[in-house]
Amino acid sequence: MIAVIDYDIGNLAAIANMLNRLGAPCVITADPALVEAADKIILPGNGAFDACVRGIRSSGLLDLLSHKVLVQRTPLLGICVGAQMLGHGSEEGKEPGLGWIDMQVRRFPRLPGLRVPHMGWCHVDKGPVPSALVQDLADDARFYFVHSYYLAPADPQAVMLSATYGIEFAAGVHQGNIAGVQFHPEKSHRFGKALLAQFAQGAI
């Protein structure tokens, strides 16, 4: 069972709907008992970094999530700001991140003709180290993005997917049982469905 963490942030129904179409058992929950029983966890996020960090802390689930992910090694997928929170912090705010991946979150630079936020469909390339989560992803894979800040892991080997918008940036990261994607797989049609299917089937 996949627990989609509910901490009053984001459109969780779209994620659950995609998982339901895949036949993957899931529950949108803030119930510690259901989170404890979960085989996999999805950490969504939408809006401002600090608001999401404060939301997950005030949910009362952070200690349990840390134990599940860091001790029990339960697979976790962060989506959008849920992925950004996996690092140490963001240039968007002042709150510290979860620190589960050695990573910072940077703002897109001001470049001529570059509109921020980056919004829309963007092609992605696989990173330097093959990740089982995306190993079968089509070469023409593209995903839907809405963001002004991007993932910047300290270790290039942690880059699972990269994309280019003025600069090349990490569109997805993967380290052990933890993965995060900057885009919205639940809005990315067949490519997002394929990625969530790999996660549901135990790719990490």
Features:
204 residues, alpha/beta, Rossmann fold, eight-stranded mixed beta sheet, three-stranded mixed beta sheet, globular
Strand order of the largest sheet: 2-1-3-4-13-12-11-8
Tally of individual domains: 1
Order of SSEs: EHEHEHHEHEEEEEEEEEH
Contiguous helical run count: 6
CATH class, named Alpha Beta
For CATH, the homologous superfamily is named as: Class I glutamine amidotransferase (GATase) domain
Do you know the CATH topology? Rossmann fold
Strand content: 25-35%
Alpha-carbon Rg, integer: 15 Å
**Amino-to-carboxy terminus distance:** 14 Å
Secondary-structure class: alpha/beta
Low-confidence stretches: none
Largest sheet: 8 strands, mixed
Helix content estimate: 25-40%
